[in-house]
Amino acid sequence: MIAISVRGPGLQMRGLLMLLLACLAWSAQAAPPTDADVNRLLAASRAQNMLDSMLPQLEQMQREQFARIAADRPLTAAQQTQLRQVQDRTRQTLGQALSWSQMRPMYVDLYKRTFSREDVIAMAEFYESPAGQSLLDKTPLLMRNVMEAIQQKMTPMMADLQKDLNQILAEPATAPAPAPAPTKPAKP
């Protein structure tokens, strides 16, 4: 905390100067990153590669979703053709919307609004370091291992849930009780 003395004009001026310097130091520390700073970070963190690697996964999810739609009901040849056309159009739209040329400006804007210049430079320096490069190299393996561990943890839980579900479905369904007949209002 900066205290401003009111004992004399010289001391008051010194206090104002200290306050001004503190404000300048704070504003310099919280300066927003430049586009070049963010682009350096995006390059160092391999953001484009990560985005590009997500697209095949999203396309696979889309194929599975369309396969489920087709499996739920019998489709005529014309409907199958239309479904394939919609699937192709969806894949193209997804590819265009998530292309690096479309996404990079959004990344730059979001990083500039979220992080200070100091933060962005520190992250870029980390990702450019051997430790940062190792993290980037090993993250896919880490994520695969995490997913396998989660799957192993969930398997017994899902088996218990399936057992409960099977028990509920094995119980005979009872017909709902008939609704009471409407009564006529008494005439006065």
Give me a quick take on this structure:
The protein contains 7 helices and no strands. It is mainly α and 188 residues long.
Describe this structure in words.
- The chain has 188 residues and is mostly helical.
- Helix 2 packs parallel to helix 6, helix 3 runs antiparallel to helix 4 and helix 6 packs across helix 7.
- It is elongated and about 95 Å long.
Can you give the helix content as a percent range? over 70%
Q: If you compute it from the alpha carbons, what radius of gyration comes out, rounded to the nearest whole angstrom? A: 31 Å
Strand content: under 5%
**What's the story with the biggest beta sheet?**
none
Q: Average pLDDT, to the nearest integer? A: 83
First-to-last CA distance: 85 Å
What brief labels describe this structure?
mainly alpha; about 80% helix; 7 helices; about 190 residues
Write the layout of secondary structure elements.
Blueprint lengths: L8 H21 L5 H10 L2 H26 L4 H21 L2 H15 L2 H12 L1 H41 L18
Helix pairs in contact: 2-5, 2-6, 3-4, 6-7
